[in-house]
Amino acid sequence: MAKEPKEHFKILLFEDNSADADFVGECLEQSNLSFEMLAVKCLADGLQALQAQTFDLILLDLSLPDSGGIATLQAVVGSARDEVIIVLAGADDEELSLKALQEGAQDYLCKDRLSGEVLRRSIRAAIERANRMKRVTSQTREVQHNADLLRRIFDANTDAMLILTQEHEIKFLNPAAAQLLEAQPESLVGEIFPFEVEREKRIELEVPGPEESTRLVELNAVDLVWESESALLVILRDVTLHRSAELDLQREKERLAVTLDSIADAVIAVNPNGEVERMNQAAVKMIGVTLASACGQRLGDVLKLRHPKTGKLITDPVGVFLSQQIAPEMGVSLAAGDGAEVLVTVEMHCILEGDPSQHGCVVVLRDVTSHKKAEEELFQTEKLHSISLLAGGIAHDFNNILTAVLGNISMVRMGMDEGDIGSKKLLLAEKAALQATSLTQQLLSFSKGGTPLLETTTIDQLVEDSAQFILRGSNVKCEVHKDDNLWSVDADKGQISQVVNNLIINADQAMPEGGIIRLDLTCEHVSSGNIPALPSGDYVCIAVQDQGGGITPDNLKRIFDPYFTTKKNGNGLGLASSYSIIKSHHGLMTVDSVVSEGSTFKVYLPKAAKVAAPSPAEAQEDNTIHPGHGRILVMDDMEAMMMVAGEILQVLGYEVEFSTNGDEAIEAYKKAKEAGKPFDAVVFDLTVPGGMGGEEACRILSEYDPELIAVASSGYTTSNVMSEYEAAGFKAVVPKPYRIKDMSAALHRILK
Fold it and tell me: What DSSP designation does 66 have?
């Protein structure tokens, strides 16, 4: 913007002649102008001064040592900012003066006619002329800019825009209008606009489109001044796609509603105010409310969710779940409309990225009650498996110790009269040691070594006998209800009896003041997914229901954990071992409990493929000791166990040799056979830590000698050898711990 004339001027003088420079200075002094002046003698110094500071006026001599003529003026004009330039020449040169004015000088003065007054008038006029020209240029530029801007706006607008006279004659139209009306712009200027126009009113009309189609157009008209005359601005907007989009949106909403209703998870849309906007049918069913009653309510009033840590109702679900105070995968309790509580996972997302208060959010609820139960079932199984190795190792060592104890006791008793007081005390010790085997049996139930000896049988009599035996003398009564023609199952009677005993004992202890235990034996068909972790099929169900105080939710989660007990003198093995036993039978044990009302334990055993044969009357225990003769090879990794087994066999009349692992047993057997002194039988311990066990050694020796007579003896094994010994090449089994009569009976049967 040009500077206004002012009283004080800052002047730059280009003059190489000192006398002329002094003369110009004197003239300036005489002009009565307030000024300060910088004089330079060459073009380069002047240009440098222009770069360093600003001036109001430049007095320029065109003839300088380093430049001359118009070139000097051009150089100065190129470096000047807003400075006014007056050329000082030595003589009149009309052509040069005209050229100077054309190149940007405001005046041209001859030094010969220079005076203070001439210089003052020239400076004032030049500055005023420069300012006036700059104002005109600025105004012209602004007018042109506005006109260009308006045309750019018109041309860039996608809406059709036309300027009409009051008689509706087209004065101007933008490219969008020409395209909509399918004509060249110049051909329409001067024509009458063909459609009805109403000021300040939106009108929808149809106009012809390409290929015999029609377009839906919205028309709006406003008054306008155009080129100093009253006119109309008509805007035509093609709303064909908009109306089509509205129709598509409506269809999409309908499709969305159908899609949402087909989703199994509950889906709830929440508006920016935190109110329910829509719900699918799964949500209506899960929550137990109608869509009409839920819409418009706060989400916290519709969803009765309890915080998984505090148990309190969540009043602001949007704030809690969007801030991820509760992890999406964490189960949350939801109170359904019927009063029941289901476990759900909650996922919440903003409809658009950013603040939910702007766009709302979507809530997805998934019922994971069954899934959670299945997870807990799997976790329970994994926990039991994690201690199986420990339990098996303990059982193995403990059974070896018990075998050494029982073996020595039974051998000492053989040399004593039954009436001897010492023999009686040893008999009591033997019975106590045999009772200790029940502990190892429970430990084995945790491990693969507790593989059941399956037989097809019915269990109703077994269950009733167990209940009567346990409750003898108790103030608790047992009621038995069973289906007619109860299905047979493949089961280990001893292990199932142990399970029933544990359940009856627990039910009895849950009712110290007395009560009724209800025993139900039913045939049930389980469909896929009905009971988590239980495959579909036919099962016999044993249900034991008590009327005790029930089990708290916290204890219920750990009820099958090994060593977990709420009893003062309990060991926490009863239910854990029962659970493991039923799993090894390919079944499942479940529990439901309500505090103050009681608990119900259910055992599911798969139906047998065949019907059980009638069971013969139980034979009396045979206490006969059978002497024998022959050579026996004993393989056992425990020295004390080997010594006891050797003494037992020697007492029975056998010649004994020993080996500590499978490799030694194979070598000893081959050497004896090749030496003509073969072994009549080999007694194998199945488990040898860090070495070859009896199962592999038996297989190798059976290939070497098909006539091999092998006996499996173990208190723990990770395979099914003890229950399916013949398939593994053994002729008999003697489970540890054993007494002298157990070994004598097995050898007598296979060697006689």
Answer: T
Is the model's pLDDT at 353 over the cut of 80?
no
Q: Shortest CA distance to 666 belongs to which of 641, 696, 644?
A: 696
What pLDDT, on a 0 to 100 scale, did the predictor assign at position 634?
A: 93
pLDDT tens column, 163-190 = 899 899 998 888 888 888 888 888 888 8
Q: Are 484 and 604 in contact (CB under 8 A)?
A: no
CA distance 524 to 693: 43
Cβ atoms of residues 301 and 313 within 8 Å:
no
pLDDT reported for residue 435: 62
What radius of gyration do the chain's Cα atoms show?
Answer: 55
Peptide bond into 194 cis (omega under 30): no
Bridge partners of 298?
275
Helix/strand/coil (H, E, C) string of 612-624? CCCCCCCCCCCCC
> How many residues belong to the chain?
752
Round to whole Å and give the CA distance between 719 and 698: 14
Pull the structure tokens for residue 403: 């075998």
List 224's β-bridge partners, or say none.
Answer: 231
What is the SS3 assignment for 408?
A: helix
- Characterize 179-213 residue by residue with b for buried, 16 or more Cβ atoms within 10 angstroms of its Cβ, and e for exposed: ebbeeeeeebeeeebeeeeeeeeeeeeebeeeeee
Whole-model pTM: value is 0.40
Rounded CA gap, 419 and 421, in Å? 6
Name the phi and psi angles at 672, rounded to 5: -65, -40
Task: Give CA–CA dist 478/471, Å, rounded.
Answer: 8
User: Taking a C-beta distance cutoff of 8 angstroms, is the pair 722, 714 a contact?
Assistant: yes
Closest CA to 91 of 63, 120, 131: 63
Q: What percent of the chain has a predicted confidence (pLDDT) above 90?
A: 19
449: DSSP letter: G
Torsion (CA) 480, 481, 483, 485 in degrees, nearest 10: 30
In terms of DSSP bridges, do strands 8-14 and 34-40 run parallel, antiparallel, or are they unpaired? parallel
Distances from the Cα of 96 to the Cαs of 69, 91, 644, in angstroms?
8, 10, 139
* Token reading at 608: 């047998």
Give the strand pairing for 631-635 and 655-659.
parallel
Whose tokens are 């489109």? That residue is 209
Cβ contact 462:496 at 8 Å: yes
| Burial of 450: CB neighbours in 10 Å, binned 0-12, 13-18, 19+ | buried
Cα–Cα distance for residue pair 283/291, rounded to 1 Å? 9
